[in-house]
Design brief:
Layout lengths: L15 E8 L1 E5 L17 E5 L6 E9 L6 E4 L2 E3 L6 H18 L13 H6 L1 E8 L9 H17 L9 H8 L11 E4 L12 E5 L8 E6 L9 H11 L1 H23 L3 H21 L9 H17 L4 E4 L6 E5 L2 H15 L6 H4 L6 H10 L4 H6 L9 E6 L10 H7 L18
Parallel strand pairs: 5-7
Antiparallel strand pairs: 1-4, 2-3, 3-8, 4-7, 5-6, 8-9, 10-12, 10-13, 11-12
């Protein structure tokens, strides 16, 4: 079913337009819990993530600013979203836009292509934000991180705002979604919790770019594309209030682990990197279970995916695949190289997707049907390995094959921009359902 077109979007005559994309990032050392004393979406521990290839999992955003818009508008995945209410994301969107507008208003001149006569005038125009995700939203794959990173990158183009010693796009993205600051850069990125009262030092730092470990691959098993029952913000608040393990994990586990993982990544030591990644995921979900009432982000398919990773590594006689789960049931499995990824993907497809693993049978179930079908033909899992993975089959809705990639970028290709907004009048375009929505 195709979503209905947005309700009577107003065609515009005078407007500026900008576009950008941002990839998702998957935390390998996770943060859980906000620092209420400092505020501003600051975390109680530092974290680190790997940015995934934007060709596979990304948010795409177009922003239109016009004096004809009397209020701001947001269209997400083909539907209009309320930005005036008290919802968490409505407030965060307004906060990000307010920060970028204040910065714009201080500039001497608007961007050269702007139709505004001054930066101050441009900052007062209403904006229409049109965005989509190419992967499941609010399902534990950091869709908010990609979305807010794309928003801030896009706003930086629209308003001509850049990083300076006194202003950080990373800190602005953090105001929308904490982990969004990590999606602005590629490769391995740390989000430093910082300690300053003004929160200016709570921002992302690229540790290694996407070229440092080019062999690394990633297989994602989508156990559910539905929105999670407990949103991350609500879950963090509950954990902070009720979990004794949370503070111990933040201070004694996560911070030292980040240093260990950084060293393993520098050395391209997958055995060590993989163990640290899996242990950190386990400790995060232990915190969720320690919360009262407990939070269950993993489901039965998630647990089977964990079993499959350990069975695969046992068959390989060393760690060649490593799972991690954010606040959701979907398994993100990093693999040592393409050969390991192909072998694990064949196992995962056999266990979770179904009987027909041909290119035709896999269409709509993966972002790379030909590649996955070829991997399945070349790497049929042994009966012993399948037995070690358990006798249940199916349960996943999709699989993604991807790798570590670069960060947010602008502008979008014309075809991607035009799929979101009519460039002649700034109106949002009706879209068919994404593969993950079907």
């Amino acid at each position: 079913m195709v979503p209905p077109p947005p309700p009577h979007p107003k065609p515009l005559e005078v407007f500026d337009m900008a576009s950008a994309l941002a990839p998702t990032n998957i935390a390998v050392v996770k943060y859980w819990g906000k620092d209420a004393a400092r505020g501003g979406n600051t975390p109680i521990n530092s974290s680190a993530s790997l940015t995934l290839d934007p060709n596979d999992l990304r948010a795409e955003t177009v922003m239109v600013a016009s004096p004809e818009l009397r209020s701001d508008e947001l269209y997400l995945n083909g539907r209009k979203v309320d930005v005036k209410g008290d919802g968490t994301h409505a407030k965060r969107l307004r906060r990000c836009l307010a920060t970028m507008r204040r910065r714009c208003a201080k500039a001497k001149h608007p961007p050269r292509s702007s139709r505004a006569t001054s930066s101050e005038e441009l900052s007062r125009w209403g904006v229409r934000v049109v965005s989509r995700n190419t992967f499941p939203t609010a399902a534990g794959l950091a869709s908010s991180a990609a979305g807010y990173a794309a928003l801030v990158r896009c706003a930086s183009e629209l308003y001509g705002v850049r990083d300076t010693p006194s202003f950080s796009l990373s800190a602005t993205a953090r105001e929308g979604s904490g982990s969004a600051c990590r999606s602005l850069d590629g490769g391995l990125v740390a989000w430093r919790k910082g300690c300053r009262a003004d929160r200016a030092d709570s921002k992302a730092e690229q540790l290694f770019d996407e070229r440092h470990w080019p062999d690394l691959r990633c297989v994602i098993i989508v156990a559910s594309a539905a929105e999670k029952e407990t949103p991350s913000t609500e879950g963090m608040q509950r954990s902070v209030a009720t979990s004794p393990f949370l503070t111990h994990r933040a201070e004694a586990v996560a911070e030292p682990r980040l240093l260990d993982l950084q060293k393993a990544f520098r050395q391209r030591n997958f055995e060590r990197f993989g163990e640290l990644t899996m242990r950190d995921s386990n400790s995060f979900h232990a915190t969720c279970l320690d919360t009262f009432p407990p939070i269950f982000y993993l489901n039965e398919v998630s647990k089977r995916a964990i079993t499959c990773v350990h069975a695969f590594n046992a068959a390989q006689k060393r760690t060649r695949a490593a799972y991690t789960f954010d606040a959701g049931p979907n398994a993100v499995v990093f693999c040592e190289n393409e050969a390991a990824a192909d072998a694990f993907a064949a196992l995962a497809a056999t266990c979770f997707l179904g009987a027909d693993l041909s290119r035709r049978g896999l269409r709509g179930l993966t972002n790379a049907p030909e590649k996955l079908a070829r991997a399945c033909r070349a790497n049929p899992p042994s009966d012993a390995l399948l037995e070690a993975c358990g006798d249940k089959r199916g349960g996943a809705t999709m699989m993604y094959l991807t790798r570590v990639g670069g960060g947010a970028a602008a502008p979008l290709a014309d075809s991607a921009r035009d799929a979101l907004v009519d460039a002649s009048d700034g109106t949002p375009q009706a879209r068919g359902r994404e593969a993950w929505q079907r």
